[in-house]
């Protein structure tokens, strides 16, 4: 039996083709249903839901579930942890995975906040929330500034990666939340 982990690779590939097919005006619902059936047939029991209108894909099976969102209307799941996100943070991508009852997230954002202010906000904000900052590094370069932060609290680990280059939106950053090993 294929697990949700195996299905994720299939989902991303087929979903991209389905969204491209639908984006070309070839019938959103037809493309969605065809892609869902292909993924489900290769997954041995997983349930798949593709919504090209919202840019989301959801997969659920016996050992967990996954959801993927990209685009302008990305929503943050209710069980996403309380992190020091900037007030103007705009989610541009969200991957939420639940495996054996344990959630993990990877989320991409843009903000107008400067790279130094964003770095300070995450270091101080994570510490204020009880996280221990285990690693932190700022860097400067010809392609722009950025930083990496890794922090943990209890059985949760948070990694933040930021770099200039969010286009007109300012700076971009990605937050990963996983169980601590």
Please outline what is shown here.
By secondary structure, the chain is an alpha+beta fold.
Walk me through the structure.
- Helix 1 (4-23) runs antiparallel to helix 2 (28-41).
- With 181 residues, the chain is an alpha+beta fold.
- The chain is built from three helices and nine strands.
- It has helices at 4-23, 28-41, 115-128; strands spanning 47-51, 56-61, 64-70, 90-99, 102-111, 132-139, 146-153, 156-164, 171-179.
- The longest helix has 20 residues, at 4-23.
- It has a nine-stranded antiparallel beta sheet with strand order 1-2-3-4-5-9-8-7-6, with helices on both faces.
- The chain has two domains: 1-70; 77-181, 3-Layer(aba) Sandwich (Protein Transport Mog1p, Chain A).
- Widest beta sheet: strand line-up: 1-2-3-4-5-9-8-7-6
Q: Kindly report the CATH topology of the largest domain.
A: Protein Transport Mog1p, Chain A
What are the secondary-structure elements, in order, as H or E? HHEEEEEHEEEE
Q: Measured on Cα atoms, how large is the radius of gyration? A: 18 Å
The total strand number stands at: 9
CATH arch. level architecture of the largest domain? 3-Layer(aba) Sandwich
CATH H level of the largest domain: which superfamily? Mog1/PsbP, alpha/beta/alpha sandwich
List the uncertain runs.
5-27
Q: Which secondary-structure class do the elements indicate?
A: alpha+beta
Q: Let me know the average pLDDT.
A: 76
Share of β-strand residues: 35-45%
Number of domains: 2
**CATH class group of the largest domain:** Alpha Beta
